[in-house]
Amino acid sequence: MEAKDLTKLKKKLLAERERLLNTAASSRKNEFAISTEDLADEADLTSAELSQSVVFTLREKEHRTMADIDEALQRMEDGTYGLCEECDEEIGPRRLEIFPTARLCISHQEEEEKKKKFYIA
Fold it and tell me: Which domain holds residue 93?
């Protein structure tokens, strides 16, 4: 992978990481607070709990994305970024542009998804 492409992807990863950190900081202030004064009945309480559940799910997803970004940045430092973890072949530049945290080439990613689909069904 060319140095300019690597630099571009690193900037993209760092920008996404910064966005996630900012989102998490603002959500801590606003989304997790439930005032008992706002909950007039059980329906309001249920609605608030459901909203909190959705927020927790979103935060979990963001946490996993942050971990993926950190791993990709570490692979950049190690010199293994852009190589498939299964076959050590280069991951296509277009795939990395769209999905900069990719760890697998498209062939191995498809195999991984088929396995997941098989075990879920």
Answer: 3-120
Phi, psi of 81 (to 5 degrees): -65, 140
Say which CATH number the domain at 76 has: 1.20.120.910
User: 78-114 burial by CB neighbour count: b if 16+ within 10 A, else e?
Assistant: eeebbbbeeeeeebeeebbeeebbbbbbeebbeeeee
CA distance 16 to 28: 18
Angle, helix 3-30 to helix 42-78, in steps of 10 degrees = 160
Q: How far is residue 67's CA from residue 61's CA, in Å, rounded to a whole number?
A: 10
pTM of the model: 0.78
> Is the pLDDT confidence value at 35 over 60?
no
Domain count, the chain: 1
